[in-house]
Amino acid sequence: MERADVLQPPKNKGHRSVVSIPDAWYPGCRSEELAEGPVARTLLGTPLAIYRDGDGAAGALLDRCPHRNVALSGGAVDERGWLTCPYHGWRFDRTGGCRDVPGLPPPSDTEVQERAVPSHAVHEQDGFVWVWGRPDAPPKGRPVRIPHVDDPSYLVIQREYLFEASLHAALENALDVPHTAFVHRGDFRGGPRQPVTAIRRRIENGIEVEYQGEPPLAGPSHDEEGRPIVQQHWDRFFLPSVAQVEYLTGGERHLVTTFPHAPIDDYRTRGYLVTCWRLPGVEPESVRPALEKYLDDLLAQDVAILARQTENIRRFGGETYRSTDLDLMGPEIWRMLRQAERGLDPSAADIACTVELTV
Ligand code: FES
Ligand SMILES: [Fe+2]
Questions:
Q1: Which atom of ligand 1 is nearest to the CA of 86?
Q2: Are both 73 and 191 inside the same structural domain?
Q3: Cβ-based neighbours of 2, under 8 Å, separated by 6 or more
Q4: Any idea what DSSP says for residue 318?
Q5: What is the DSSP secondary structure assignment for residue 128, as one 8-state letter?
Q6: Is 244 in the same domain as 120?
Q7: Residue 229: is it exposed, middle or buried by C-beta count within 10 angstroms (0-12/13-18/19+)?
Q8: Which 3 state secondary structure label does DSSP give 353?
Q9: 145 by DSSP, 3-state: which?
Q10: Cβ 88 under 6 angstroms from ligand 1
Q11: Which domain holds residue 328?
């Protein structure tokens, strides 16, 4: 080999599956987290102070006082409902307007705006404070709903975790079937492989893959009369950051897990998991501890493999991707994210396909 070849940099150096889509809703925090006062969260690389004002309405402000840079998330809401900076006590309303500077007379409207801090629109829904990614901009539409989160006939388990991974890598992992028999071997799939048909289709603002003929993930594979139990399974992606997995087993047992993600920065993503289980004939609270442990074990495995993926992307200074028919979600999620980032129609591509595989 020629010396010059040896010194070639790795191919694909510089390719990074990272996007920034500010015109969208992201989960900022859980509603209940605001009970104790403001929280500091970073979204799309921007530090935010998320808090509840005197009216009980949530707000999201840039987490930097325009006076001398102190984090507003370290402040408190005063008796007038304004967020108070902990250094000199400047006070801000939910729109970011500076309503009071201690020691000065009440400000004019111009002064309120001159001393303002950027603010983000928020919308509370399904137990989350959703934050619009672009500051000082009116939001469009509503966040994705989380089915069954308030349904008393479902056992609901919620988890939060931090991925050392890009938004795209985290989303792909949540919806990636082939890794489950490997990374989660023994916990989830990993038995003798079974033939399954996967059908990919477009849904509003997203992608759905339906799996037909899949045996149940857990529990009995045949009913009392010896007939095979059929599991229906759908994986879904909703632009830009929500993954969803739904199983309906034997027509009764229902599981839908929704994963809202918040990109903290290029290679850190906060993930939330809201899993809702209808388990006929089972007392929900009797299975909660075991299910929580099961989920925590699965998530720890995903957190670990994604950290290894990111570490190696950093080691090579970029990415390479060689996808096959089994990679039903990742490349199309990437295409939608990229189109959205460029302001193009993210749903323009014809993605319909049917793939025979084994799981
Ligand atoms: S730094 Fe916030 S009031 Fe001075
Ligand atoms: Fe996983």
A1: 2
A2: no
A3: none
A4: B
A5: E
A6: no
A7: middle
A8: strand
A9: coil
A10: yes
A11: 155-358
Cβ neighbours around 142 below 10 Å, total:
10
Q: Which of ligand 1's atoms lies nearest the C-alpha of 68?
A: 1
Both tokens assigned to 45:
């690389």
Q: Tell me the pairing of strands 58-62 and 46-52.
A: antiparallel
**One domain, residues 125 and 162:** no
- Taking the alpha carbons at both ends of the chain, their separation in whole angstroms is 42
Ion ligand 2: residue ranges with CB closer than 5 A: 302
- The ligand 1 atom nearest the CA atom of 69: 1
The atom number, within ligand 1, closest to the CA of 89 reads: 3
From ligand 2's centre to the CA of 273, what distance in Å?
Answer: 12
Condensed to tens digits (0 to 9), the pLDDT of residues 246-295 reads: 999 987 899 999 999 999 999 999 999 999 999 998 998 899 999 999 99
The amino acid present at 146, given as its one-letter code, is I
Tokens encoding 314: 């950093």
Q: What digits encode the pLDDT tens for the residues 22-46?
A: 999 999 999 999 999 999 999 999 9
> How distant is the alpha carbon of residue 339 from its chain centre?
19
Spacing, Cα 319 to ligand 1 middle (Å): 43
Q: Is the pTM of this model over 0.70?
A: yes
- For the stretch 286-328, pLDDT in tens is 999 999 999 999 999 999 999 999 999 999 999 999 999 999 9
**The pLDDT of residue 6:** 66
Give pLDDT tens digits for 189-203: 656 778 899 999 999
CA distance 191 to 321: 28
CATH number at residue 68: 2.102.10.10
The CB of 70 under 6 Å from ligand 1? The reply is yes
Token readout for 83 is: 């967020």
Task: Please state the rounded mean pLDDT for residues 126-132.
Answer: 98
C-alpha to C-alpha distance for 200 and 225, rounded to whole angstroms: 33
CA of 167 to the centre of ligand 2 (A): 15
96: tokens are 């970011």
Q: Determine which helix (DSSP H) or strand (DSSP E) holds 114, and give its type and residue range.
A: helix 109-114
Residue 144 lies in a domain: no
Q: What is the mean pLDDT of the chain?
A: 93
Q: Are residues 128 and 169 in the same domain?
A: no
Q: Does ligand 1 have an atom closer than 6 angstroms to the CB of 87?
A: yes
Q: Whose CA is nearest to atom 3 of ligand 1?
A: 88
